[in-house]
Design goal:
Elements (H helix, E strand, L loop, with lengths): L3 H6 L16 H9 L13 H13 L1
Helix pairs in contact: 2-3
Length: about 60
């Protein structure tokens, strides 16, 4: 399926996961991304070292 969203973000489906603080971590972001959507890590109140850890985890999965 091609839409403006899929073309801009280079994703398969026009699905963008909400970045909900503490509810949307690396595991959910990786799962959504692996399924063809755009996964987001809710990082609004995360300390930088935790955000880095979450990003690294998501990238490796």
């Amino acid at each position: 399926m091609q839409t403006g969203v899929t073309q801009i973000f280079g994703i398969r489906y026009p699905v963008i996961q909400g970045g909900m603080i503490w509810a949307a971590g690396a595991e959910l972001a990786a799962a959504v991304s692996n399924a063809g959507g755009l996964g987001l890590i809710g990082s609004g109140s995360m300390y930088p070292d935790e955000l880095i850890r979450q990003i690294r985890w998501a990238k490796s999965h």
